[in-house]
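Dear H.,

Thanks for agreeing to be a second pair of eyes. The structure we're designing against is below in token form, covering all 646 positions.
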């Protein structure tokens, strides 16, 4: 005890000697001042000595308390311990450390009275005490740190596993990840001359080859315009950080106003290349299902997406539609009853597709068929009323549909593929046989047990897909009313044949027109009241331009607020230099965002940042437990993220 006091406080003696010398010098000139200085020196020395002594006693008592709290361990044992050990007070001040701690973590210094947080990676010791330990990099070494709470303080142990960590890191960095790549729009370049088409393909393969070489990766060309690249994980991580610049490089390949795009599916984090390749195939299917021109990385059954800024390339063909129609015909024939259900807050596309398909199944296949819908929350009330005036035996509620379910009941989902978004998730979970018909970009949480999954993200609407199908299922069963219902769905999602309108869209519209669809009467289904128009333009009037996007908000609890907000978002797109529009509105206790775009900004990506989804030009999201101003800030932040990324 005494040895530690004297060795730790040498400045005490220096101070005392200096004061004594000063008093002796002063004595020659002024005895009163000399005795005063001598008194101050002696008094100061006594005070310093007392406080130093009391501090040492406090430290020793605390140290004894700490070590007594750890059975069969004492200070001398921990001093000889083959790992760094440190003891602290209850507030994290270092009171003792062994020689290894001083050498390895303090580089030879004595850390007495320093805060332990410096040696815990700025963590508070209370938060890590009695935990399972944590990893820490310090002074070029890697430690696993364990902190134990004892009486009056804490003891921390540092296990140096630098060698193990280096081996693990090298192993992890060299684990193989498989990337499967497909040329999205190869067909667009095929009509050109053979030399020009070959030149485009050669330029693409050259870029992919250089891309693989720059990342020290294995490259191989596969049949059907597909390619494989095998990365080390460290190179994949770099590509993820750079957000896969290869997508932008490939978009630089153009010919006659056609822009080349690729989709990449990557499987990583697997023990074998076979498992990585299986995940890569799933990831590629997801990337293509979301419209292409993007990268989907699959790890541990989760996805991460990059890119997706280009419009999807129309790929649906009559051959595929006929094959799908044949599969659906077989499933319907094996069923005893068919239910058709769309998404919650159904719109003209959802209801139109269901109404167009219902009489075909009922009359061509002679099966009982009903449309499951919640009329109160639907945004297609005008169409529902028109159909009910013609035939009331079409719509049923989810509760009515649940009464007569059997193992042979078939559920056809239209205009969505996400189980949580359907009109009744409970009813869907009770049906063993499911068919999905949807055009929205593929979401990670999709209905994965469907007997037939008819998904085409490049098609304008579910109504267009159903129109294509019924030409093979039974076009003679379509009346004028059903034709107008399907046409209204196409007109809604294409904004009157402006957005996502391909050749097959006009072919479907021509077929419906031939079946008697009246464009004037169809347009009347979009009519709304004067009050609705006033509320719509009130929202438009309050909009602001942020990052080239129109952002508006309202807390109006109108029963038709969803339709009003959607119309306001459409109206805002007509404003000059607006790339996309977003309307925030309240409904059912949560804040909703309706997003629209003409394609310059992918609003699906923006909504996915906020937990929503949809299509490149039409998407939505819901935000719970948040104020309107907070929702607006989160939306603007998401817009900025997507603009910066793309």
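And this is the sequence the design step returned. I haven't edited it by hand at all.
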């Amino acid at each position: 005890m005494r040895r530690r006091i004297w060795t730790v406080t040498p400045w005490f003696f220096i101070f005392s000697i200096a004061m004594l010398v000063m008093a002796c010098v002063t004595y020659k000139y002024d005895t009163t001042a000399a005795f005063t200085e001598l008194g101050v020196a002696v008094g100061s020395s006594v005070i310093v000595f007392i406080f130093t002594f009391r501090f040492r006693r406090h430290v020793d008592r605390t140290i004894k308390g700490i070590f007594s709290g750890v059975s069969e361990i004492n200070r001398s044992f921990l001093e000889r311990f083959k790992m760094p050990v440190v003891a602290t007070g209850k507030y994290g001040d270092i009171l003792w450390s062994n020689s290894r701690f001083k050498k390895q973590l303090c580089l030879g210094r004595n850390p007495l009275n320093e805060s332990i947080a410096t040696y815990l990676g700025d963590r508070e010791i209370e938060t890590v005490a009695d935990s399972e330990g944590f990893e820490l990099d310090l002074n070029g070494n890697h430690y696993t740190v364990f902190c134990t709470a004892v009486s009056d303080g804490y003891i921390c142990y540092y296990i140096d596993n630098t060698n193990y960590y280096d081996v693990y890191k090298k192993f992890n960095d060299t684990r193989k990840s498989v990337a499967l790549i497909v040329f999205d729009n190869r067909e667009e370049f095929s009509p050109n001359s053979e030399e020009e088409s070959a030149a485009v393909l050669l330029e693409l393969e050259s870029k992919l080859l250089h891309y693989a070489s720059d990342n020290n990766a294995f490259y191989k060309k596969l049949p059907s315009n597909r390619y494989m690249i095998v990365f080390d994980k460290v190179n994949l991580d770099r590509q993820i950080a750079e957000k896969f610049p290869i997508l932008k490089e490939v978009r630089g390949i153009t010919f006659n106003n056609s822009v080349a795009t690729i989709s990449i599916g990557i499987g990583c984090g697997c023990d074998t290349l076979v498992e990585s390749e299986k995940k890569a195939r799933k990831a590629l299917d997801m990337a293509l299902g979301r419209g292409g021109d993007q990268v989907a990385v699959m790890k541990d059954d989760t996805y991460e997406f990059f890119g997706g800024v280009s419009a999807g390339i129309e790929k649906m063909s009559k051959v595929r539609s006929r094959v799908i129609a044949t599969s659906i015909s077989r499933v319907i024939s094996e069923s005893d009853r068919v239910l058709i259900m769309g998404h919650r807050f159904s719109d003209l596309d959802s209801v139109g597709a269901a109404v167009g398909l219902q009489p075909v199944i009922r009359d061509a296949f002679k099966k009982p068929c009903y449309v499951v819908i919640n009329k109160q929350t639907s945004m297609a009330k005008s169409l529902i009323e028109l159909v009910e005036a013609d035939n009331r035996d079409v719509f049923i509620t989810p509760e009515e549909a649940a009464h007569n379910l059997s193992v042979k009941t078939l559920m056809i989902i239209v205009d969505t593929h996400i189980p949580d978004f359907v009109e009744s998730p409970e009813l869907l979970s009770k049906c063993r046989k499911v068919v999905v018909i949807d055009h929205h970009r593929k979401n990670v949480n999709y209905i994965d047990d469907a007997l037939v999954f008819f998904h085409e993200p490049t098609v304008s609407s579910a109504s267009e897909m159903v129109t294509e199908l019924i030409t093979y299922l039974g076009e003679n069963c379509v009346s004028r009313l059903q034709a107008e219902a399907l046409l209204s769905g196409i007109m809604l999602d294409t904004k009157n044949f402006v957005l996502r309108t391909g050749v097959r869209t006009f072919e479907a519209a021509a077929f419906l027109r031939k079946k008697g669809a009246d464009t004037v009467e169809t347009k009347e289904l979009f009519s709304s009241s004067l009050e609705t128009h006033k509320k719509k333009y009130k929202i438009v009037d309050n909009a602001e331009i942020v990052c080239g996007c129109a952002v508006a908000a309202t807390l109006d609890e109108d029963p038709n607020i969803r339709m009003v907000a959607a119309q306001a978002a459409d109206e805002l797109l007509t404003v000059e230099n607006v790339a996309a529009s977003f309307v925030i509105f309240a409904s059912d206790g949560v804040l909703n965002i309706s997003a629209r775009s003409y394609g310059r900004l992918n609003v699906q990506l923006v909504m996915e940042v906020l937990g929503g989804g949809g299509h490149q030009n039409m998407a939505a999201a819901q935000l719970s437990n948040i104020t309107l101003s907070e929702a607006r800030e989160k939306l603007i932040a998401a817009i900025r993220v997507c603009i910066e990324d793309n």
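Two observations from my side: Residues 1-8, 69-73 have pLDDT under 50 and may be disordered. The longest helix spans residues 31-68.

Warmly,
E.
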